[in-house]
Automatic annotation (TrEMBL), chains A, B:
Ranges of residues in domain Transcription regulator PadR N-terminal: 7-80
Organism: Zhihengliuella salsuginis
Domain annotation Transcription regulator PadR C-terminal: ranges: 92-171
Protein name: Transcriptional regulator
Biological classification of the source: Bacteria, Bacillati, Actinomycetota, Actinomycetes, Micrococcales
Gene3D superfamilies: 6.10.140.190, Winged helix-like DNA-binding domain superfamily/Winged helix DNA-binding domain
Pfam families, sorted: PadR, Vir_act_alpha_C
Amino acid sequence: MILARLILGLLTLAPMTGYDLKKHFDSSINHFWNADKAQIYRTLNKLVEDGLAVVRVVPQENYPDRQEHHITDAGRAALAAWLNTGLDAEPVREPFLARLFFSGELERENVMRLLRARRSEVTDRLEEYRAQRAGLGDVSGYDRRAYLMAATLEREVGRTEAELKWLRSVERSMP
Amino acid sequence: MILARLILGLLTLAPMTGYDLKKHFDSSINHFWNADKAQIYRTLNKLVEDGLAVVRVVPQENYPDRQEHHITDAGRAALAAWLNTGLDAEPVREPFLARLFFSGELERENVMRLLRARRSEVTDRLEEYRAQRAGLGDVSGYDRRAYLMAATLEREVGRTEAELKWLRSVERSMP
DNA sequence: CGTGGTTAGGCGACGAATCACCTAGTAGGT
DNA sequence: ACCTACTAGGTGATTCGTCGCCTAACCACG
C-alpha cells in the first residue's frame, strides 16, 4: 500500500520504468525506503490496473523497450488524498538493538566486536548521507519542495550522528 | 526468522506463554520491536516443532491453562549461534519521511500540521522512554546484561531527541 | 444487568515482501 | 574467448505480517 504511494510520488517527478524506480530506491531515496524489484514491477501493474498510472512503450535501439509509467490525474488525486490523511502508527523494528539486547551472555570481547562492526557500518552510512547532502548544495533559498526533500536527508544525518555518539559512549563504559 | 530469535531470547529470561510474550513486545521491548499476536503463536509452534522450545501446560483455576514455553538446550544453542554471526543488512523504512518527502505540493499550513502532529507523537514517545528509563534506576554498577538492556533504550532516547531537534528546526526554517 | 477490560489461546484469509531464477542483447575489461 | 556489469522486464514459491474474527471465563464499574 505505502509502496504504491511512494511510486506514485516518484512518478510525479518524471515518468519512469520499473528499472528507473529501482535505481531511485537504491540511491536518491535510500535514506528512507527501499524496495525489492519484483515488488516494484508488481505494484506498477496494480497501479495501471487501478487507473492510477498508464504505460507508454518507448522502443530503443540495442536495448529493451522502456515501459514508461506515467501518473494519471486519478493517480495524482490518490497521492494528494494520502498526503492529507492523519499519521498512521509506525511499526518499530531495530534488528541491531534486538541483537544487542540479548548479547549479555556473550563474552565481553564478542560484544565489543559487534559494537565496532556496527560503528563501522554506521560511519559508512553517515559518509554516504553527507556525500549526498553535498551533492544537493545550499538548501536555503530553495522552494518548499526541494527544502523538504533535503530535510528528510538531514533527519537521517542527525539521527545517524546520534547513534554514533551513543555507540562511542557504550564502547567506553560497557562493563 | 528474527522473530523466532527474539522469542528465544525472551524465553531465556523466563518461561512464557504467547500472551506473556505479547505483553513484553508491547511494553519492555517496544522500543526496538513489536509483533502481532497471531504471528507470536505461530512462531511458538514452529519453535516447538523444531525442538528449540517445549511446552508445559500449567492448569489454573478460573483462568485458561497457561501453555508455558521453555527454551531447550538446542534453543539456547540456536540463539548463541545467531548472536555470533555477522551483522546483516537492515531494510530502511521511514513512513513519516516518505510522506514528508512528497509533501512539497501541499499548502504550507498542511505541511506544518503534519510536522506538528509528528512532533506531538515523538514527544509522547520520548516521555514513555524516559519513564521506562526512570523505572530501571541507575545503570552504572550493573552487570553487562542489564547494562546492555538499558543501553538499547538509551539509544532510542538519543535518536528520538535528535528527531525532536530536527523537527523544531524544520518548523522554524521551512519556506 | 450490561459493558468493557483481562487472562489465554486460536483460525483463516489476504496482502506484502523476499528469494531465486530466467530472458536477452550491449559493452568493456583481461 | 571469457567474465562481469548494465539495460529492461519479468515469474513462481514461500515466508512474513496483519486484520478480523472466535471461544470462554472472570472481574470491576455504574
